[in-house]
Write a structure and sequence with these properties.
Layout: H1 3-25, H2 30-50, H3 57-84, H4 87-94, H5 98-108, H6 115-131, H7 133-138, H8 150-173, H9 179-197, H10 204-217, H11 219-240, H12 245-251, H13 255-266, H14 273-292
Helix pairs in contact: 1-11, 1-13, 2-9, 2-10, 2-11, 3-4, 3-8, 3-9, 4-8, 4-13, 5-8, 5-12, 6-12, 6-14
Length: 293
C-alpha cells in the first residue's frame, strides 16, 4: 500500500471519528444529518464546477444511484445506533466492515489481496474487538459492563453492512468519475432519497419542523458535519483509486481507537488496559498494512 493512500486513509479516519462524535451530540439525529446533507451539496457546488464534474457521468450513474441510496440508509441507521448505544460500542460494531469489504472487493471488483494484507485486516479486527471487549461481551450478558439493547446491536450491525455496501459501490464508481464530483452528485441525489424516506421515519410535516429546529439550534454541529463528512469520505474515495478497497477500509479502522478516546474524554465512557491493547493492535495492523500489504 502506497504512502499517500495510507496517509489519506489515516486522516480520513480521524475526521470520521470527529464527525460521528458531533452527530452523537445532536438532539435531532435524522434531521441533523438531513440538514447537513443539504449544506454539503451547497458547499460542494464550487468544487464540482471547478472539476468539470460531468466527465464519466453515464458510466458512473448506476454507482451514483446505489451510493446515494445506501448513504441515506447508512446515516439513518447510524443515528439509530448512536441513539441506543454508547459511542464506542456502536462505533466498534458499525466500523467492523473491512473483512466484508475485502471479500466483496475480491469477488466483485477483482481486487486480490496478499496474505499479509489479510493478516493485517485480521489483526485490526482483533484490535477492534479487544478495544471494546467488555461492551461486546455485555451484548451477551457477560460481565458488568452496560448492556447495549439488542435493538441497538441490530442497528449497529445493519450500519456495518451499509458501510460495506457503499464502500464497494463507491470504489467501483470512482473508476469512472473524479472522486469529489462523484461524492457531490451522490450527495445531491441523496437529498431526493431523504425526501422519499421522510414518511418512513415519521410524520413529514413534523420532520420538516424538526429539520428547521435542528438548523436553528445546532448550526455549528450541522456545519461541522457538513464539512468533515465529505472531506473525510472524499479522501477515502481518492485512496480507493490508489489501493484496493479492502486495504483502504482496513487502515481507516484507526478511527475506532479515536472514537474510543473521544468517548472517554467527551462522553465519560470507561477506559482501561483492554482499550489500550486494542488501540495498539489496530495501529499495528495499520502499520503492517502499509509496510507489507
Amino acid at each position: 500500500m502506497g504512502s499517500l493512500a495510507f496517509l489519506l486513509a489515516v486522516v480520513s479516519a480521524v475526521l470520521h471519528a470527529i464527525w460521528n462524535a458531533l452527530l452523537k451530540r445532536s438532539r435531532y439525529g435524522e434531521c441533523c444529518v438531513m440538514a447537513a446533507a443539504a449544506v454539503q451539496a451547497l458547499l460542494l457546488v464550487p468544487v464540482f464546477v471547478y472539476m468539470e464534474g460531468w466527465n464519466g457521468f453515464r458510466a458512473a450513474l448506476p454507482f451514483l444511484l446505489a451510493s446515494a441510496a445506501i448513504h441515506v440508509l447508512y446515516r439513518l441507521l447510524l443515528v439509530k445506533a448512536l441513539r441506543t448505544g454508547a459511542l464506542s460500542q456502536a462505533y466498534a460494531i458499525a466500523r467492523s466492515a473491512p473483512l466484508a469489504i475485502a471479500l466483496g472487493g475480491t469477488f466483485f471488483l477483482g481486487q486480490h489481496l496478499s496474505l499479509y494484507a489479510w493478516l493485517s485486516i485480521g489483526v485490526m479486527l482483533a484490535g477492534v474487538a479487544l478495544l471494546h471487549l467488555k461492551e461486546l461481551a455485555a451484548l451477551f450478558g457477560i460481565g458488568s459492563a452496560h448492556k447495549m439493547p439488542w435493538t441497538g446491536t441490530l442497528w449497529a450491525f445493519l450500519t456495518m453492512l451499509s458501510v460495506a455496501g457503499y464502500s464497494l459501490s463507491d470504489a467501483a464508481g470512482v473508476k469512472h468519475m473524479e472522486p469529489a464530483s462523484f461524492y457531490f452528485l451522490a450527495t445531491l441525489i441523496s437529498l431526493g432519497f431523504y425526501g422519499a424516506a421522510m414518511p418512513l421515519i415519521g410524520n413529514g410535516r413534523e420532520r420538516v419542523r424538526s429539520v428547521a429546529q435542528s438548523w436553528k439550534s445546532e448550526k455549528r454541529l450541522i456545519f461541522g458535519i457538513a464539512v468533515l463528512e465529505p472531506l473525510s469520505y472524499i479522501l477515502i474515495l481518492v485512496a480507493f483509486t490508489m489501493a484496493p478497497a479492502g486495504m483502504v477500509s482496513a487502515v481507516r479502522q484507526v478511527s475506532v481507537p479515536m472514537a474510543a478516546l473521544i468517548g472517554v474524554l467527551l462522553f465519560k465512557e470507561p477506559a482501561g488496559l483492554l482499550r489500550v491493547a486494542g488501540a495498539v493492535l489496530v495501529g499495528g495492523g495499520a502499520v503492517a498494512m502499509r509496510l507489507y500489504g
